[in-house]
Amino acid sequence: MDLNPDFLSQCFLHTLSPQPEPRRAAEAQLSEFAERPNYALAVLRLVAVPTVDEQIRVAAAVNFKNHLRSRWVPSAESALTPIPDAEKDQIKTLIVTLMLSSAPRIQSQLSESLSLIGKHDFPKAWPALLPELVSNLEAASGNNDYNSVNGILGTANSIFKKFRYQYKTNDLLLDLKYCLDNFCAPLLNIFLRTSVLIDSAISSGSYSPATLKPLFESQRLCCRIFYSLNFQELPEFFEDNMEKWMTEFKKYLTTPYPGLESSADGQLVVDDLRAAVCENISLYMEKNEEEFKEYVEGFALAIWTLLGNVSQSSGRDRLAVTAIKFLTTVSTSVQHTLFASDGVIPQICQGIVIPNVRLRDEDEELFEMNYIEFIRRDMEGSDLDTRRRIACELLKGIAMNYRVQVMELLAVQIQNLLSSYAANPAVNWKDKDCAIYLVVSLATKKAGGASVSTDLVDVQNFFSHVILPELQSQDVNGFPMLKAGAIKFLTVFRSLIPKPLSLQLLAELVRYLGAESNVVHSYAAGCIEKLLLVRDEGGRPRYTSADIAPFILMLMNNLFNALKFPESDENQYIMKCIMRVLGVAEISTDIAAPCIAGLTSKLNEVCANPKNPIFNHYLFESIAVLIRRACERDVSLIPAFETSLFPSLQLILANDVTEFLPYAFQLLAQLIELSRPPLSPSYMQIFALLLSPESWRRNSNVPALVRLLQAFLQKAPHELNQENRLDQVLGIFERLVLSPSTAEQGFYVVNTVIENLDYNALDRYMPKILSTLFKLVQDKRKVKIIKSLLIFMSLFLVKHGSVRLVESVNKVQQNLIMVILEQLWIPNLKLITGSIEVKLAAVASTKLICEAPALLDASAVRHWGKMLDSIVTLLSQPEEDRVEEEPEMPDIAQNVGYTATFVNLYNAGKKEEDPIKDIKDPKQFLVASLAQLFSLSPERYRQIIFENLDPANQTALQQLGSSYNCHIV
């Protein structure tokens, strides 16, 4: 079928169908066509046909944009066919003209498409773009065609964003110079010309909001381009023309536009321009303070005045925030003396800070209607761009140079607010909230810790008189925003509240878990969770299982009941609290039974529709910590846990709940490791499923599947010799180890096989295993792979003996062990890291040179000496002196498949096992082994050491011998 416009038009029409069948068929057809050359060009030409319905052309423009996003420069791991260069050239020739002549909805899609191309090709591979944009800008400006002007400026804005927030490199600066040389003058011209049009329309009075809005949007886009082009450094053109820019900027901050600002839409257009101006002058204040200094006072006055007129409407938040940010930047600069004049700080406090910190109707609405967003802003610090937070940041900035004045003034303000509340609590409760918010927001976090301090109030006194009455109120539902503020205060200052008082308040917090307000019971849960993390000097937990034992049953009951409140059925703060409490509490049968029932019930609910990954993670962590704390203490609980959990885990496996599979595998591994052999038939059924190649199809499941397979290999090694299971396990090992993204997991599998099976079961497989690993190293030569191979061979040696290792390696190829030693083992031994791994490699290498006949033979003198040199380096030099940074960059893209979805369960973590527990000190083991060997032929070995060991290592070996009272050399 040809890619003709009529046929494509029908396809895009069907993609808009509400019926799934024609929609899916059309989408499949387009996906097939997308593989053909000139597909993007054909879609672009369809977009250009004016007789085609606009809805179809918009759909085509969206498809075109997405096609470019995935195929203009496909990612390294993508299997998609890239767009051919000849087709790219034709697209670049057509797109600018088409974008400018399109309707707004299509224009926006094509502008994004153009930006996508520009991201990769501009300017080096698309030198014609900027001259074409400038030419069209001048033509559109001359015709007063502000639809086209704004299309061009919007595109330029998107392209120039690359100059923001990037590290300064020569390539970036060359690209920036090219853009400055070609676009600075046209930018200033259009900015000034549009300004004249605005002023003329305003002064004549003959304008309509519809004609002014595009002009203001044009100025806003010019300001955003100004920001991008000035971000890296102050260009000469902008420095030379600073007066022109700043005069216009100040005009927009000081001039009212009543005809436009009388409507909400018009007000937003003007405020967006003013906010863009504020961001520009803040940039100059931060980066070009010296050149900008003569304008600072005028802008500061303009913004003070402007802020006095900016209403509390949420629609004006962005302007208020950007304006206050400018004042904050000034307050921390050398220009801070502007705040030293009499009355300025009180004026800012009373006229800007307090009005913006006070609760607004929008805050109350958010508190009631969207508790998650309220908490993110209020407690989790995502409120940096809110009026409340930025007003406090301004105070902090001023306090850097005028701390005494600010603190004295605020102390009075806080006292006034509290007095107002005391006079009429029911009416003036927002004053108390404002006082609490100021104290919390202006607290200072101590470096290197979670504790905070403040010199604004006496924390103990403020807590006793202001916070405690709220927390001890018997009505958990009265004035919920005040209750939330009080709980937040306790959370923030938790390390400063004495333990006896905090323990009393823990019981109060348990009550607040029953509050109807989602924010209040979430804050109560969060506060309990944070209190249990408090540590005293020496890192000792302040609160232990004994501290929460008196009310643990009520606490757990209230936590699970809180999950029944509307909209809190997947409340992540409550589930995190459950996890933390279970990690601290003494888990008796009375607690374990209702907890596992409650958690599995919730698990069954979320299995039907997993939608909150944070909640789900804490749910699985809670189950894992409950298993660990309860079953390690009392193994008789394991059958009851299995009875509760198995139906849920089988549901996840049977329904292929993708998000939960890695979690399920980790929990199963945890249960198996706690079980006593023989494993139940239920586990063996899962073992059979685990060995199926289909189970390993998704890379996202691999780390958890390996963890589960390791558990089976440890607990049921004898069953491996039945039903061809060992062949299946080694097939899995081979599949994993040969894929770059799972090679490390493959080593985990084969290491566990080596550690848990008798040599008789392994003997016939070893040549194939070693051949696979040697070929892998030969092909990849990556440090990580070589280190993994050394650990594998070391583990085999300590488990099954040096003679068997040498024999197994030499079965692959005659005398291969010497090649392996010379090319891999000796030069890379010093790169081993990790305490258990270093010990294992050192002991194995010692055994090899002291026990293996092949190494003790006279023909192997050189290998013996070099191996000893590497062992001494490994044991005597600090890790940072031994290990250089790996020469290759980790291939992140190859790991995206599973690292993006696999999340390790901390509480179900695999315990690191030491495979040579009987050897405590590898240094002592080396010295003792050498002493025994040297006693047979001391002169011979002294000569070998003298000839092969680095002088520093000869000295290190002597020191090792002396430290263990053993004379070696």
How would you summarize the topology of this molecule?
Blueprint: H1 5-15, H2 20-33, H3 39-47, H4 54-71, H5 85-101, H6 104-121, H7 129-142, H8 146-160, H9 170-204, H10 209-230, H11 236-240, H12 242-254, H13 258-261, H14 264-287, H15 289-309, H16 317-331, H17 344-357, H18 361-369, H19 371-378, H20 387-423, H21 429-441, E1 444-445, E2 452-453, H22 459-471, H23 480-492, H24 499-512, H25 518-531, H26 545-548, H27 552-562, H28 572-584, H29 589-608, H30 613-633, H31 638-654, H32 661-674, H33 681-690, H34 702-715, H35 725-737, H36 743-756, H37 759-762, H38 766-780, H39 783-800, H40 802-812, H41 816-828, H42 835-851, H43 853-856, H44 861-876, H45 879-882, H46 892-899, H47 922-934, H48 938-948, H49 951-963
Antiparallel strand pairs: 1-2
Helix pairs in contact: 1-2, 1-3, 1-4, 3-4, 4-6, 5-6, 6-8, 7-8, 7-9, 8-10, 9-10, 10-14, 12-14, 12-15, 14-15, 14-16, 15-16, 16-20, 17-20, 18-19, 20-21, 21-23, 22-23, 23-25, 24-25, 25-28, 27-28, 27-29, 28-30, 29-30, 29-31, 30-32, 31-32, 32-34, 34-36, 35-36, 36-39, 38-40, 39-40, 39-42, ...
